[in-house]
Amino acid sequence: MSEKGVVKSGSNLERVLSAGHFAVTCECGPPKGADVEHLEKKIALVKGYVDAANVTDNQTAVVRMSSIAASSFLVKNGVEPVMQMVTRDRNRIAAQSDIFGAYALGIRNMLCLTGDHQTFGNHPKSKNVFDLDSLQLLDVVRTIRDQGVVNSGDPVQGGIKMFLGAAANPFADPFEFRVIRLAKKIDAGADFIQTQCIYDMPRFREFMRMACDMGLDKKCYILAGLTPLKSAGMAAYMNKNVSGITIPEEIIKRIRSVQKTEQAEEGIRLLLEQIEEVREIPGVAGVHIMAIEWEERVQEITQRAGLLPRPQL
Amino acid sequence: MIVADPKPFLQVKGYLEDFGKILVVGCGTCTTVCLSGGEAEVQILASGLRIAFGKEGRQKTILEDCIQRHCDLEFVTPILSRVEAEGVDAVVSLACGVGVNFLADRLGNVPIYPGLNTTFYGANAQQGLWTEMCAGCGSCIVAHTGGICPVARCSKHLLNGPCGGSEKGKCEVDPKNIECVWQLIYDRLKRLGRLDDLRNLLPPKDWSTASDGGVRRSAREQLYDVK
């Protein structure tokens, strides 16, 4: 069972959350190659405006620089990473080995995910692993951290302190199981949760009400996931093609109702309203802003949302 | 049963370019039932080969046979005898991969080629449709999941509930054709009044009993001297 009161890694994100601040995280997707300059540009764009930045792990199963290596560049450049790790590409041997390496490189937050199926990516003919699922990965890392043993029971040489995160998708089915799954993830070791992007606010409210009824907000920090829509086209595309994401028709209409050149601004205005809304929902401890390939707007978004300056703890 | 699909005709024909006397052997069990490797399919493939090679003006002898099972010595022995007696140059098997291997181990210097792609352990869900039901992992867990297997039927083999790609009962990998097995498990456990079972974390699976643990054997000590 996760306990909010006990320090897990002492990461900045953990300190911000445990001090009761409304946390802000964003995403920093690694390049599709070894372009460090490009990565460092992205890092500079978010530095100082978020408490930590998620570094995705070959998201949508498209090959990119590894999340561990990219996370270490965030550490080096002064932005705290939340290293994402999927179980799609590594078995329990590789996962544990990678976690030791990540810790040695200064990484103190990680997000345990199962990962998008490889059929969605650029290597659909590859073999997947899924030796563990995301819950088992949480349990494995938590056991290393708290008991000092790897999954086999062998003692570790030099422990790790990791603030452990997991994802939750209130918009996938079966809906009633989504909160049970959240509870299972907390039982398995999740200290914080970042949700899938929220567009259906009533459904998210209902999810949070169920979570709070079960006392889950007392056991872990729940960050509401939000993605600004750059255009009506992007909204329609996500609604149609991204499984588990439903964008209500009135949102698509709202973005479409303004001129194309104004749609990005309308998307940001909508995001700012969403941030205001989720801040008022009981149990929400922060926002995870997934500005996909739009890192250059993170400063403006956090500024206009009144989320700056970020706490210096 | 073991399900298998026919290989593309030209791929099979390609294997056989260099041989004069070819024996096409079907299997009377699984691949007969799934309509890919029985007596009828042997006739169709053999006829096709005769027509295709004939059109190219090439003389080949295409023989046909079908045995009850490819995976038992009792049924395989007559085929081995026939290959030797009639001087067969190559064999095409329309059994599953088990049958092809079992014959290959016993065919000496005569080559064998697969006529099918073996796919999965499945059931005849509807007329003309077979679906995957078991992954042969060697340590069955369906006691925890209402008798429904997530190892075989979840695209990610997840053991602790549906991923974020479960929508309206379908799997995001192919929503038209794949049901989300975790929706099926959830619905079934709900009917059984056992939804609480889903609260328990299933630990990492022991894959050593699956093919990951090395090539497997299965012995019955009353019949076989287990070493």
Set down the secondary structure blueprint.
The complex is a heterodimer of chains A (313) and B (227).
Chain A: H1 12-18, E1 23-27, H2 36-46, E2 52-55, H3 67-76, E3 81-86, H4 92-104, E4 109-113, H5 134-147, E5 163-168, H6 175-188, E6 192-197, H7 201-213, H8 216-219, E7 221-226, H9 232-241, H10 249-256, H11 263-279, E8 284-289, H12 298-304
Parallel strand pairs in A: 1-2, 1-8, 2-3, 3-4, 4-5, 5-6, 6-7, 7-8
Helix pairs in contact in A: 5-6, 9-10
Chain B: E1 2-6, H1 9-15, E2 21-27, H2 30-33, H3 39-55, E3 61-67, H4 73-86, E4 90-93, H5 97-104, E5 112-114, E6 116-126, E7 129-134, H6 150-153, E8 166-167, E9 170-171, H7 181-191
Parallel strand pairs in B: 2-3, 2-4, 4-5
Antiparallel strand pairs in B: 1-6, 6-7, 8-9
Give an account of the 3D structure.
- Chain A has a single domain (12-230, 273-303), classed as TIM Barrel (Alpha-Beta Barrel), CATH 3.20.20.
- Chain A contains twelve helices and eight strands.
- Chain A has helices at residues 12-18, 36-46, 67-76, 92-104, 134-147, 175-188, 201-213, 216-219, 232-241, 249-256, 263-279, 298-304, and strands at 23-27, 52-55, 81-86, 109-113, 163-168, 192-197, 221-226, 284-289.
- Chain B is an alpha/beta fold and 227 residues long.
- Chain B is built from seven helices and nine strands, in the order βαβααβαβαβββαββα.
- In chain B, 33% of the residues are buried.
